Structure formats: C-alpha cells, structure tokens
C-alpha cells in the first residue's frame, strides 16, 4: 500500500512539473509574440512618420519665355508667314529649298524676332495679353513629310517655334505626308500641329454640315495624336464663306487663318486672320521687304 502511494505521489509531481513547464513555455511564447507586435507597430509608425516628413514634390516651374524682352500690348499686329513644302528642287513656287528657308529664318532670328507658339499668339489676339515687341508666327500648310525631314532640323537648330497645319485624311498615307509618329514627335518637342481640315476641300463649295464635319473630324484626329487642344485652322486655298466662319466657331476653334495679305491684328475677326505668303521665287531682298512692309 505504501509503495502504491509513493508511486502515485511521484506521478502527481511529474504531471505538475509538466504542467509548470508547459506554462513557462507558453508564457515565453506569448511574451515573444507581444514583443514582435510592438516592434512591428513601431516600424509602421516610423514608416508613416517618415512618409509624413518627406519633402513635398516640386512641381515643374513654367519658364517665362519672354523674360527680359520688351513687351507690347498694342494693336501693331504680328506677321504670320506661311510656307508649304521644303525640299531642294524648288520645282514650283510653293516648294522652298532648305537652304533658302534657313537663310530666311536666320534673318528673322538675327533681326531680334521672337517666334510665337499658337497659344501665345492666341493669347495676344483673343485674351489681349502682351507679347514681345518683335513677334512673328511661322506656319507651314498641308503637312508634308519634308516639314519633318528638312524644316524641323532647321527650327531646332535655330531654337524657333512654328505651327504646321495638317490635312488629316492623308496622315499615315504613304511617305509624302506626315505620319502620326512624326506628328507626335514634333508636337512633343514644341512644334504646334493645327488643322488644315480633313480633306483640303474648298469649304465655300460645301454645305454647312459638310464644312462642320471637315473641321470637327480634323480637330479630333489631331488631338487624338498629340494629346493637345487644337486652337486654329487654316482655310484650304483661302476659300471661305459665312458658313465657314460659323462652322469654325461651332467646331471649337478660336482662330482661323486666310490667305489675305497682311499682319494679323486685333482688328481682324479672329476667324479671318491675315497671313504673308512666302514664295520660293522671292529674292532675299523681296522677302525682307514683304516681312517688314506688309502691315495694314
């Protein structure tokens, strides 16, 4: 009987020790888990604190292109030159050679002119904002591929702005006219891509609805390529009627250019702006005279 009691006591002590050991192990586990949770929470708080203390993102600063220039806000107007194709042959008067174009643009630069973007020109005509005393708008009609291969390098070299009025139905149609890829590249660089309608039709021979479609379709196509708002259109052949100016406004343009000779100024209707045609047959003296003496 005594032996049995001793054995029973030993079993009880063993069970008690096991229970105590399990309890100690469990307590250690719980403590370590709590310490890990505390450390994790501290890391999260540190991360949040670091995020809150991060320097605010610096937005790009808009450069004032006109800084240091004498500005005017009167109605003396702006010469708007318009070219077409740029290639060596000069086989007709609307095709000017790269060398001749370079000479003319170099003269413009050396004479102290500031080439405007279409947005800056729009601000002058529509919003009555100031521009440099000697301002000029360089434009090209139709959207030939040689505007990219021959004119674009010269514009980049001379750091000059320009606007190209493209016929949207011929975009990506062969190698004679600009492709979407080249249009996007030039637009990203800072060359303005604007509308010369969808099919280069004589607008004054179309119905109002047909004119509106020409203007809307071309505007939407260009905007889908460049991701930028199209502000202006150049009338094909300079042909327009009363419906044309109404359709231009309804299509969402703020400016439209004719082929009428003269400076563009605030006396012009914004959708009937004058320009100065440049022929490849002009001597340099004739070009200078046309640029300087064409104001109304």
TrEMBL record:
The chain crosses the membrane at residues 12-30. GO terms for cellular component: extracellular region. One of its GO terms (biological process) is carbohydrate metabolic process. Keywords: Membrane, Signal, Transmembrane, Transmembrane helix. Its main location: secreted. It is found in: Secreted. Gene3D superfamilies: Glycoside hydrolase/deacetylase. This is Polysaccharide deacetylase. It comes from Clostridium paraputrificum. The lineage of its organism: Bacteria, Bacillati, Bacillota, Clostridia, Eubacteriales.
């Amino acid at each position: 009987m005594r032996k049995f009691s001793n054995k029973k006591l030993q079993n009880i002590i063993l069970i008690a020790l096991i229970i105590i050991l399990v309890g100690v192990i469990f307590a250690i586990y719980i403590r370590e888990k709590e310490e890990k949770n505390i450390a994790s929470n501290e890391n999260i708080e540190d991360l949040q604190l670091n995020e809150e203390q991060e320097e605010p993102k610096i937005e790009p600063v808009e450069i004032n292109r006109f800084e240091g220039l004498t500005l005017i806000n009167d109605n003396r107007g702006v010469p708007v030159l318009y070219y077409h194709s740029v290639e060596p042959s000069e086989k007709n008067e609307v095709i000017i050679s790269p060398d001749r174009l370079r000479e003319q643009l170099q003269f413009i630069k050396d004479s102290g002119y500031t080439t405007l973007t279409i947005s800056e020109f729009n601000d002058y005509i529509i919003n009555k904002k100031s521009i440099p005393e000697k301002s000029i708008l360089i434009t090209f009609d139709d959207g030939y591929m040689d505007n990219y291969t021959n004119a674009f390098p010269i514009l980049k070299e001379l750091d000059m702005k320009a606007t190209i009025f493209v016929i949207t139905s011929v975009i990506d149609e062969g190698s004679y006219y600009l492709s979407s890829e080249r249009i996007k590249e030039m637009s990203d660089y800072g060359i303005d891509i604007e509308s010369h309608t969808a099919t280069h039709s004589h607008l004054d021979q179309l119905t109002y609805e047909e004119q509106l479609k020409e203007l809307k379709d071309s505007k939407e196509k260009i905007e889908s390529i460049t991701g930028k708002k199209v502000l202006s259109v150049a009338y094909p052949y300079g042909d327009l009627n009363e419906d044309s100016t109404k359709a231009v406004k309804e299509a969402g343009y703020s400016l439209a250019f004719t082929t009428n000779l003269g400076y563009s100024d605030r006396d012009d209707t914004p959708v009937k702006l004058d320009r100065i045609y440049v022929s490849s047959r002009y001597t340099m003296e004739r070009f200078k005279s046309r640029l300087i003496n064409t104001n109304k």
